[in-house]
Amino acid sequence: GEELSEAAVSLDIHNLMTDDDMTGGSWVTEAKVQAFLNKKGGLLKSYRDPAAGNRTAADLIVSNARAQNINPIYILARIQTESSLVSSGSSSNIAKATGCGCPDGSGCSAMYKGFGKQIECATKLVRNYLTDLSTKGVTIAGWKVGTSKNTLDPCSVKPANKATAALYTYTPWVGAYGKTCGD
C-alpha cells in the first residue's frame, strides 16, 4: 500500500483549501508558471496548443484562470491530479488534462478534448460552482457549505467553505484520505 505523509494524514477533508486560495493568486504570472513547469520537467514545459493558436501551456493556464478569477496554482494542481502532465513527459493525457467533461465510468466528451479546451472548461466549471454557492447556496451536485453529503467513496463530508464544496462537486471522492472519514 501507499504510505501517506504526515501532512496528508492530517488533511482536513471538510476544509481542503480556503476560498481565498481558490480565487487568489493574482501574483502568479505566466512567467512564474512557465518557470515552475520548466523546473518540473514534464510535457507542459514546452507544450504549445495547436488548437489554441500555438499558445503555451503557461499562457493558457494563467489567462483562463484570470478570466474566471481562479487561482492558476489550483489549475496546476488539477492538471497534475487528473493527468500528471506537470511532471510527466507523456502526451497520452493531453486531451483530458483536467478531467473536465470526463465523468467517472465513461469517456470524455469530444467537446472538451484538447489542452486549451480542458483548461477553459475547468476554470469555467469551478467559477460556476462558486457562483452557484454564492447565489443559490448549493452546487449542481448538491454540495453546500455546512451541510454533510456523501462522496462516492462514500465518506460523509461537511464542507467548511465554498472552495471545498466546489472541489467535491468537481471530484466527489476523498480517495486515499478516506481513512480520515468520521474524524
Task: Explain briefly what this protein structure is.
This protein is mainly alpha-helical and 183 residues long. The protein has 7 helices and 4 strands.
Residue share in β-strands: under 5%
- What is the number of helical segments per DSSP (H or I, 4+ residues)? 7
Number of strands: 4
Backbone structural class? mainly alpha
Largest sheet: spatial strand order: 1-2
Order of helices and strands: HHHEEHHHEEH
For the record, give the distance between the C-alpha atoms at the N and C termini, rounded to a whole number.
21 Å
Which features would summarize this protein structure in a list?
mainly alpha, two-stranded antiparallel sheet, 4 strands, 40% helix, globular
Structure overview:
This protein is globular. 40% of the residues lie in helices and 4% in strands. The two termini are 21 Å apart. The protein has helices at 6-9, 19-23, 30-40, 57-67, 72-83, 115-135, 162-170; strands at 48-49, 55-56, 149-150, 156-157. A hairpin with a 5-residue loop joins β1 and β2 (55-56).
